[in-house]
Amino acid sequence: MKIILHIIIILLLTAVTQIGGLIYLISLILVNKKTEKKRLKRIGIFATLYIFATFLIVPNLAPTFGREKIKETEFLEAHSFFYKLANRNYVKPQLNKAIGKIANDFEKRNSGIRMVYLDANFPFIDKFPLLPHLSHNDGKKIDISLIYENKNGKLTNKKPSISGYGAFESPTEKEYDQISVCKNKGNWQYDFTKYVTLGTINKEIKFSNKGTRELANLILKQNEIGKLFIEPHLKHRLNLKNGKVRFHGCQAVRHDDHIHFQLK
Length: 264
Description:
The protein is an alpha+beta fold. The chain contains eight helices and eleven strands. The chain folds into two domains: 2-63, no CATH class; 68-263, Muramoyl-pentapeptide Carboxypeptidase, domain 2, CATH 3.30.1380.10. The strands form four sheets. A four-stranded mixed beta sheet has the order 5-11-9-10, covered by helices on one side. Strands 7-6-8 form a three-stranded antiparallel beta sheet, covered by helices on one side. Strands 1-3 form a two-stranded antiparallel ribbon. The termini are far apart. The mean pLDDT is 96.
C-alpha cells in the first residue's frame, strides 16, 4: 500500500508541477526508511529541494528547451502564486515579448489596470501535457483573465474566483448558447471548470465589455499571435471580427471565464 501511495503522489506532483514527482522520488531516496522521523524529514527535504529547483534551477534550464519564465512587471502578474510555484508560467520568448507589450499597451489606455495571466506552459519538453488543458504543451499558449468593473463602471483588478477559472460570463437568453450545444452532444466536461474556482470572491464586480474588448483587440493586433479562443457569445457581444478569433471545440472546456491566445 505504501508503494502504491508513493506512486500516486509522484504521478500527482508530476501532473501538477512537472518536476514535483522527480523531486519527491529523490527525497524518498535521500531519507532511509529506517531514519527516525523519516516522514517529517522527507517533507522538509522535498520542500527545500522543490523551492530551490523551481526558483533557481528551472529558470536557468528552461531556455535549453526554448522556453523562459514569464517576465512580470507592474502591468503584468499571475492571478495566483500557485501558477509560479507549480511551474506553469513558462512560454516561448516570442510570446513572452508579446505578452509584455500587450500588458504595457493596455495599462497605458487604462491606468493602473493590469493584465493577469493564469496557466501558460511547463518549462520542459514539448507535448508534455499541462492538465487539464489539451494544448498547453509547447510553450506557445497562455490563458489570461477577463476584465471586470465595479458597480460604478470603473475597471478593477479584482477577479471573481480564487483560482481564476470557473466564474463564467454566461450567454443571455438572446445570445447563442454554445455551452448547451456542447453538453447536449455528450461533452460533459465542457463546464467542468465550475468545480475548480476554489471559491468565488468579489461578488460586487461584473464583467466589463469595454475592458475585455479592448484587451482582446490589443492581443489580436500582435503579428505573432495566431489564434484567440473565447466563447462564441462573447465573440459576438464584444464584436470581435478578426479572423484569429476561433471556436476551441466542444472537446475542450468553455472559454467565458478566460481568454486563451497563442503564437502562430
